[in-house]
């Protein structure tokens, strides 16, 4: 598949529209990855020349509804395209639809969507990973060159990429514009790309990255991800955080796949070493992430009050608080309510110092620990997820705290705003696993190059039959 994206884009020949749409329908029947889809393909020249692009439901598009997976936004039709969508369209992308997600991005399995829950194309009894689950399932199941726009706050690109056996790259915070993204946690949110090949991911990132006057946190930095893409890890120093492998929830098979991946990277010329990184462990990183994420989310969600966007109720005879609670109680899901309560509590006078401020301090220590590691290593590596995609039953039996712990390996790089990618690492019990490669700030190229070297060197064939 990796060369077909390139061949397709280079050939500029386009796709047979009818065949594509009927395949898309089959994929949709099997996976329920999409919330809405296009009725046709538009070929428009540019670098992408009609390449199919899907967009996560959290990213605004003027041609499709944008619900963020929530009932409260069920009828929300944005009047503009997010910057990332605009940039892809300018390069000739065909937007083929919007992909399902956990409500407002709150989840690790995509079982928190207010709408249909997507199913893993490798085994439809299993979850797709969250929160960009629709993007992961669609990317895996679609037998065409395709780029998915996804978003990560604490691991929402890596988790579905690992569970579905595709590439998912999350860029450095500030590399890609968030204008037109429905916020989860503003200091953490990053739009990134999923694709079946590293080439596709590099190409998508190349187009969406860069300064945007509508998002003042963006910066202009060197790109050229595609031209500079080299399948090369020779002389790269790779560190493996010891604490990640010691996470007690890690499945043995996943650990074995990872040890094999390390051997492969060494054969390809990298030098790999264990490194002690206490602060990124579950004990510090998971609570710090969840306190900061829910604190920011609880303020962001205040805007959904049945007055400005989406669902409305009947305000007659009610005071503001009554009306506000009624609309929110009816249209927010359980996980959303849990997070609003947790976030409001953590920010409350009297508790703020104890939780929110403490979490911010822990975040600084985590960033320092990463920065120190990158003085010695080009890349840090670990499994992306400690488990394979659980069955729906298994996922349901996990408590919220157990579910949050599944993010142990992804929250660290997200808290630190570091670029990272999950690359297919082979199968365990017939399900895909992911290799996590983390780079220093704005070192996406190193992450992509290591990913491309491993992609070719590992020779994993991740094809799914739909
Ligand atoms: N699973 C994490 C959470 O629920 C990350 C989600 C995300 O990155 N949007 O917060």
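Q: What amino acid sequence fits the structure above?
A:
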């Amino acid at each position: 598949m990796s060369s077909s994206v390139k061949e397709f884009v280079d050939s500029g020949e386009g796709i047979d529209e009818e065949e594509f749409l009927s395949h898309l329908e089959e994929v949709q029947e099997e996976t329920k990855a999409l919330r809405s889809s296009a009725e046709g393909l538009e070929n428009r020249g540019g670098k992408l020349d009609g390449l199919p692009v899907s967009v996560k439901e959290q990213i605004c598009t003027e041609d499709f509804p944008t619900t963020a997976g929530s009932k409260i936004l069920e009828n929300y039709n944005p009047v503009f395209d997010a910057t990332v969508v605009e940039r892809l369209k300018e390069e000739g992308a065909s937007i083929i639809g919007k992909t399902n997600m956990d409500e407002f991005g709150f989840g690790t399995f995509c079982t928190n969507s207010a709408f249909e829950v997507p199913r893993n194309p490798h085994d439809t009894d299993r979850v797709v990973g969250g929160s960009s689950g629709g993007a992961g399932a669609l990317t895996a199941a679609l037998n065409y060159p395709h780029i998915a726009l996804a978003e990560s706050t604490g691991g929402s690109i890596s988790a579905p990429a690992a569970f579905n056996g595709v590439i998912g790259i999350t860029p450095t915070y500030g590399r890609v514009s968030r204008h037109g993204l429905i916020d989860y946690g503003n200091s953490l949110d990053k739009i990134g790309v999923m694709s079946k090949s590293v080439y596709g991911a590099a190409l998508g990132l190349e187009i969406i990255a860069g300064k945007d006057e509508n998002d003042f946190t963006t910066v202009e930095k060197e790109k050229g991800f595609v031209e500079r893409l080299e399948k090369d890890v020779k002389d790269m120093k790779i560190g493996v955080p010891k604490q990640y492998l010691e996470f007690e929830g890690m499945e043995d098979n996943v650990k074995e796949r990872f040890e094999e991946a390390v051997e492969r990277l060494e054969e390809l010329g990298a030098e790999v070493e264990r490194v002690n990184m206490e602060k990124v462990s579950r004990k510090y990183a998971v609570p710090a992430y969840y306190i900061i994420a829910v604190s920011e989310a609880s303020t962001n969600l205040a805007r959904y009050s049945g007055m400005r966007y989406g669902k409305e109720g009947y305000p007659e005879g009610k005071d503001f608080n009554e009306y506000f609670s009624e609309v929110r109680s009816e249209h927010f899901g359980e996980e959303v309510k849990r997070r609003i309560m947790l976030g409001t509590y953590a920010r409350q006078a009297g508790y703020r110092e104890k939780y929110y401020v403490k979490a911010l301090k822990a975040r600084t220590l985590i960033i320092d620990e990463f920065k120190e590691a990158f003085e010695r290593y080009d890349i840090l590596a670990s499994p992306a997820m400690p488990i394979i995609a659980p069955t729906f039953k298994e996922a349901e039996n996990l408590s919220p705290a157990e579910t949050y712990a599944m993010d142990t390996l992804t929250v660290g790089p997200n808290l630190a705003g570091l670029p990272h990618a999950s690359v297919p690492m082979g199968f365990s019990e017939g399900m895909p696993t992911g290799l996590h490669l983390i780079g220093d700030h704005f070192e996406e190229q190193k992450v992509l190059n290591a990913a491309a070297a491993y992609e070719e060197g590992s020779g994993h064939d991740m094809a799914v039959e739909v």
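Q: And what stands out in the fold?
A: Residues 105-108, 131, 152-156, 184, 293, 407 surround glutamine (CB under 6 Å).
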